[in-house]
Every structure is written in C-alpha cells, then in structure tokens.
Automatic annotation (TrEMBL):
Domain named Thioesterase: residues: 52-127
EC number: 3.1.2.-
Name by which UniProt lists this protein: PaaI family thioesterase
Keyword Hydrolase: yes
Highest taxon above the source species: Bacteria
Keywords: Hydrolase
Phylogenetic placement of the source organism: Bacteria, Pseudomonadati, Pseudomonadota, Gammaproteobacteria, Pseudomonadales
Enzyme class per UniProt: hydrolase
Length: 159
C-alpha cells in the first residue's frame, strides 16, 4: 500500500470518530512506520483551570486513538480493531498552551491481536509526556458486515 493511501485511510478513520472531531484531533503523519496525531490545546480540555494543564483523559483519548488508528498503517485492508488493553505511563504533565502529539506503531501483528506502542510529546519526542502500549483485537472481514463506521471510513465522511 502506498504511503499516501495509508495517510488517506488514517484521515478517513479519524474523521469518522465524533469525539476526535470535538477534541480537534488531526493526522500529522501516517505511513508504514506509524501514525502521529495532533491534539490542539484548548480550554475545554484543561483539567486544572488554575494551572491550565490538559486533563489526563484527553491524553488517554489521544493515545488510545493513535494506537487504534495505527493499525491502518500495517493492515492491507481496513478492519475494525477495538481496544483490548491499553497501558499509559505518565512521565510528567503537558505544558499549558501547547499542542500534544501522539505517535504509535504496530510492532507485532497476529491473526487475532495487533500490539502497539508509542508516546505522547509536545516539542520534543525525546522528552515524552507519556508512554503507551496497547493491544487491539482483529475483527476480520466477517465481523465488519457493513457497519456504520466502516461505511463512514470508506466514504470519507463522518456521521
């Protein structure tokens, strides 16, 4: 699969997820090496109004989404791959006023499970905010059966 088609597939997948639209997430890069998403800083995702630090739930959503969509970087065809397990180790809070980036890659693909790993960062990937590992269940073509998300992704739109 071409690098452009990987990025297009990642864009369509992200566009189909309403909560990601509300958070303003965007694909920064998607290729056979992995996926990078951007979570823009915004007042509605601040967890502590006194410090302006982004809520941990927004970072968790970013990383779960990044790991989940990274599956399109390795699979020859789209498959629904729900989260089985996700572990996030927070290194330090995100700096207020700055966007957060999430990177994820698939490091093992089996017939039933895809294993991912990645990190969240702001200015420098060498100074991560958090590390993540995740496992995603492969549903396969038979389980996709014309579902609404699959249709949205294939049509390039969101509900």
């Amino acid at each position: 699969m071409s690098e452009q088609s990987i990025e297009d597939r990642a864009q369509r997948f992200l566009a189909a997820l309403r909560h990601c639209q509300v958070l303003g997430m965007a694909v920064e890069r998607a290729d056979s090496k992995g996926l990078t998403l951007r979570l823009p800083y915004a007042p509605h995702i601040v967890g502590n109004p006194d410090t302006g630090v982004i809520h941990g739930g927004a970072i968790t959503t970013l990383m779960d989404t990044t790991c989940g969509i990274s599956t399109v970087c390795v699979l020859p065809e789209f498959e629904i791959c729900p989260t089985l397990d996700l572990r996030i180790d927070y290194m330090h809070p995100a700096e207020p006023g700055k966007d957060v980036f999430g990177f994820a890659e698939c490091y093992r693909v089996t017939p039933n499970v895809i294993f991912t790993r990645g990190y969240a960062y702001q200015d420098d990937p060498e100074q991560p905010i958090a590390h993540v590992v995740g496992a995603f269940m492969r549903m396969g073509k038979a389980a996709q059966g014309g579902g609404e998300l699959k249709q949205d992704i294939q049509q390039g739109g969101a509900a």
